[in-house]
Design brief:
The protein has 338 residues and is an all-alpha fold. The protein folds into two domains: 1-101 and 117-123 and 267-338, no CATH class; 131-263, no CATH class. 58% of the residues lie in helices and 0% in strands. α3 packs parallel to α14.
Length: 338
């Protein structure tokens, strides 16, 4: 597989250079960071659960999308090596992933294939600037208050998984129960308490999977909902940045950039976000969930602890986000903002 990719590389990639020394440097920094991450996972792939492997699968998809757009042979060669590592992790761990309970079989079979996550199209910042936020939520005055409101979202991951199984296994019309529809596909009049943090990112993920399933939903309405959700998520991300990025929210921050970055919103690809991600990487290449006092935060249910106290969910998300940054900077003019 790898030798075929090398041949493919020399067919599609011209022998040009990066547009500037700084642009070469940024791409190099990202590829080195992602390479360290994937090396860590290769050595510990058996600790990666389904959610973690989903991040690796998306990483591979984004990297494969990049190749036709790279005009620097050195960077392209590095990307090929990253693809090979991600592909190796995927095929090594796939047979080890559980298929029971039934939801794991569904997720493994229908969500993990990399082809589901290809062809990201970057947009021109088509986000709403007037997203309605509950006044009580928008007027928080400290990092602790912000963190409390973001985490107080009423998100039920078990129920979300059940709804996702409904969606994936439904007929072409993708009819789901009223309870799931109400919980994941009806937007509030105002975002805020009970509609924040992981609740909103999972509402977005639900719509993305409905799109992948080619559900017979109103396409225009679906895209409008995605736009509203990412507009609100960007508000949260900016607020987090104002507080110098709250360590307890690292996993959520990665998830926000990953999901809305996949939608192509270029505002999620800012240097300050990339710098924070690179600063958060453990010296071993993975990502941990740590508080200011070095206490491990409460893990998401669908995650596992790896060597050095690293977290499979955060590590998989970080891989996907770094690959998205690499793609965004390779196929758009965003490099000039760095």
């Amino acid at each position: 597989m790898y030798n075929k990719m090398v041949v493919f590389l020399y067919v599609i990639v011209s022998f040009g250079e990066c547009s500037s020394v700084s642009s070469c440097h940024i791409l190099d920094v990202i590829t080195i960071s992602l390479s360290r991450l994937l090396d860590f996972v290769l050595d510990n792939y058996e600790a990666m659960n389904i959610d973690g492997i989903l991040g690796i699968s998306k990483t591979r998809a984004y990297l494969e999308d990049i190749l036709p757009h790279i005009n620097n042979v050195t960077i392209a060669s590095q990307v090929l090596k990253l693809i090979y590592k991600a592909e190796t992790i995927y095929f090594l761990q796939l047979p080890n992933l559980p298929e029971y309970p039934f939801k794991y079989y569904v997720f493994k079979t229908y969500l993990l294939p990399p082809n589901n996550w290809k062809n990201v199209t970057f947009l021109n910042d088509k986000l709403f600037t007037d997203t309605e936020i509950d006044a009580k939520f928008s007027e928080v005055f400290s990092a602790d208050e912000f963190q409390m409101y973001v985490r107080d979202n009423g998100f039920n991951e078990t129920f979300f998984d059940d709804c996702l199984v409904e969606l994936i296994t439904a007929a072409e019309s993708c009819q789901i129960t009223q309870a799931c529809l109400q919980y994941l596909a009806i937007l509030p009049k105002k975002f805020g308490v009970l509609f924040s943090g992981y609740r909103v990112t999972h509402m977005l993920l639900f719509l993305q999977i409905a799109r992948i399933r080619k559900c017979l939903y109103d396409t225009q309405e679906l895209e409008s909902m995605v736009q509203k959700e990412c507009s609100y998520i960007f508000w949260e991300l900016q607020k987090n940045a104002e507080y110098k990025f709250i360590p307890k929210l690292l996993d959520l921050t990665l998830e926000q950039i990953d999901l809305c970055g996949y939608e192509g919103y270029s505002k999620f690809f800012q240097k300050r976000f990339l710098d924070y991600i690179l600063r958060s990487q453990h010296q071993q290449g993975c990502f941990k969930l740590i508080t200011v006092n070095n206490a491990v935060t409460k893990n998401k249910r669908e995650s596992s602890v790896m060597k050095h106290g690293c977290n499979s969910h955060a590590t998989g998300l970080a891989a996907s986000v770094l690959a998205l940054f690499l793609k965004a900077l390779s196929v758009t003019d965003l490099m000039k903002t760095f």
